[in-house]
Amino acid sequence: MDFQDSPEEAEFRAEANAFLSKHLQPKDGNSIRERGDDYLQRAKDWQKVKAEGGFAQITWPKEIGGRGGSPMQQVIWNQEESQFDAPTGPFAIGLGMCVPTVIAFGSDEHKKRFVGPALLGEEIWCQLFSEPSAGSDVAGLKTKAVKDGDDWVINGQKVWTTGAQFSDYGIVLTRTDPDVPKHKGLTMFIIDMKQEGVEVRPIHQASGGREFNEVYFTDVRIPDSDRLGDPGMGWKVALVTLMNERLAVGGSPGPDWKEIMDYARDAGSMGDAAFRQKLADWYVAAQGYKLTKFRTQTALSKGETPGPENSIGKIITANHLQDICNSAIEMQDHYGLITDKDKAPAEAIFQQSFMWAPGLRIAGGTDEILKNIIAERVLGLPQDVRVDKDKPFSAF
Ligand SMILES: Cc1cc2nc3c(=O)[nH]c(=O)nc-3n(C[C@H](O)[C@H](O)[C@H](O)COP(=O)(O)OP(=O)(O)OC[C@H]3O[C@@H](n4cnc5c(N)ncnc54)[C@H](O)[C@@H]3O)c2cc1C
Predict the structure, then answer these.
(1) Which of 194, 216, 244 is the C-terminal boundary of a domain?
(2) Are residues 367 and 256 in the same domain?
(3) Where a domain ends, among 244, 269, 294?
(4) Are residues 48 and 79 in the same domain?
(5) Is the Cβ–Cβ distance between 257 and 282 less than 8 Å?
(6) Is residue 106 part of a domain?
(7) Are both 239 and 257 inside the same structural domain?
(8) Statement to judge: residues 223 and 278 lie in one domain
(9) What pLDDT shows up at residue 1?
(10) Residue 219 lies in a domain
(11) E-assigned strands of the chain?
(12) pLDDT at residue 33 is higher than 50
């Protein structure tokens, strides 16, 4: 395991840091999940600056607007950018997952039409996979696509679609053949989110935000030319989308042991032995995770692909975040209810993150699903029971 940057990596880190320092303010600790009304516009502006500076998509080839850099450089960029108040949220799914899928499976016309505007922050994308009865088991989805001439007609419902309310395009996974096993009857399409028949209904969250949506399709027509991959190959296409999440190893999702220790010092709670014990546990877990990340980064640095052990990271950070914020809120007693950052700036970061943490334990694979992955693919334990794997979807 390498703990230090190579000379080339150190040089790239310095270049990235200089660019970020020129354009953004460093995080002040209270900016976590704080978003004003102008957030979307700020995100578009920052995306444009990043693209013009050559930092928008480090690993993409230069011919399509990327930097032609290595996955390790992307990790370094993520780490450095996360130290700054960078409004990146609206582009994370599109540029991280949807557009790479278009690049992998789309035609030359698709690449010419969609990649540039996405990189420059002019168009936003969403990922339409999950449905009310298909989340962890997304291959069990029911949204139908039926061929009609040169078009496909889509009917059904998606849910938890992050950013659908301001997205221009999406990638949508549909069922095109119910008479074969569930993984074999799926097909992926590019969908214009502004077209007739697409209805987006924002979901109001406990935090007060509206980050994700229900999306309904009523007789939505998609030309066959906007299909990604062959009919019935949608699962293979979806796996490419989901694999692209693996580079998201930089950054931190919210307050960690350091923030709660600082808070406890101010609040005079450091004398509490039970709290000190918890603090020690959080510190040990954070160090363990840091070393696991070094292992992933070492693999990337050597040009290798990180393995399924990467799933450990989200289980640790999401549970850790929930526990830390819960303890901070308990420490604040009745002030723990205040979520208005103007009235209680230090406290609000714990409340906001407390409400976000359960979502983090679900999004991109729940704790249980990630534990299954670790059990099966890292520890080699017997597979989960999958009774419907080889039976036609319509038999259930
Ligand atoms: C913040 C956030 C953003 C999201 N954004 C998007 C998005 O942009 N696009 C999109 O398509 N989806 C999105 N999702 C949806 C997300 O992918 C699903 O919520 C997730 O896959 C879980 O599916 P589910 O909610 O249907 O829960 P279920 O799959 O119904 O799970 C319910 C419970 O059963 C457990 N469980 C399920 N199967 C197993 C098993 N085999 N073994 C053990 N336990 C099991 C789960 O761990 C969980 O505790 C988002 C979710 C969140 C929270």
Answers:
(1) 244
(2) yes
(3) 244
(4) yes
(5) yes
(6) no
(7) no
(8) no
(9) 64
(10) yes
(11) 125-128, 144-148, 151-162, 169-175, 186-192, 198-202, 212-223, 227-228
(12) no
Q: For position 351, which CATH number holds? A: 1.20.140.10
Rounded Cα distance, 298 and 3, in Å: 8
Mutate to test the pocket of ligand 1, among 126, 130, 370 (most ligand atoms within 8 A of CB): 130
- Distance between CA atoms of 180 and 203, rounded to whole angstroms? 34
Tell me whether residue 395 is in a domain: no
Condensed to tens digits (0 to 9), the pLDDT of residues 321-341 reads 999 999 999 988 888 877 777
User: How far does residue 158's CA lie from ligand 1's centre (Å)?
Assistant: 12
Lookup result for tokens 């980050």 = 211
Q: Which H helix or E strand runs over 209?
A: none
DSSP 204: P
Is 350:325 a contact under the CB 8 Å cutoff?
yes
For residue 335, give its domain range.
252-378
Q: Higher-confidence residue: 155 or 311?
A: 155
Shared domain check, 372 and 305: yes
Per the structure, the count of domains in the chain is: 3
Q: Does the CB atom of residue 296 touch ligand 1 within 6 A?
A: no
Residue 364 alpha carbon to ligand 1 centre in Å: 7
Task: Supply the pTM of this predicted model.
Answer: 0.92
Helix, strand, or coil (residue 371): helix
In a domain, 326, yes or no: yes
Comparing CA positions, the residue from 193, 190, 173, 188 lying closest to residue 111 is 190
**71-81 vs 7-23: helix axis angle to the nearest 10?**
40
Residues 161 and 262 in one domain: no
**Residue 157 bridge partners (DSSP):** 216
Ligand 1 atom 7: residue of nearest CA: 161
> In this structure, are strands 151-162 and 144-148 parallel, antiparallel, or unpaired?
antiparallel
Protein residue with least CA distance to atom 2, ligand 1: 363
Spacing, Cα 15 to ligand 1 middle (Å): 38
In the chain, the largest separation of any two C-alpha atoms, in whole Å, equals 73
Give dist(CA 396, CA 393) in Å, integer.
6
Tokens standing for residue 183: 């993984």
Query: In CATH, what number is assigned to the domain containing residue 198?
Result: 2.40.110.10
Q: Is the CB of 162 under 6 A from ligand 1?
A: yes
Place of tokens 């350091």: 258
Q: Tell me, what's the pLDDT at 376?
A: 93
Smallest CA-to-CA distance from 229 within 390, 75, 316, 106 is with 106
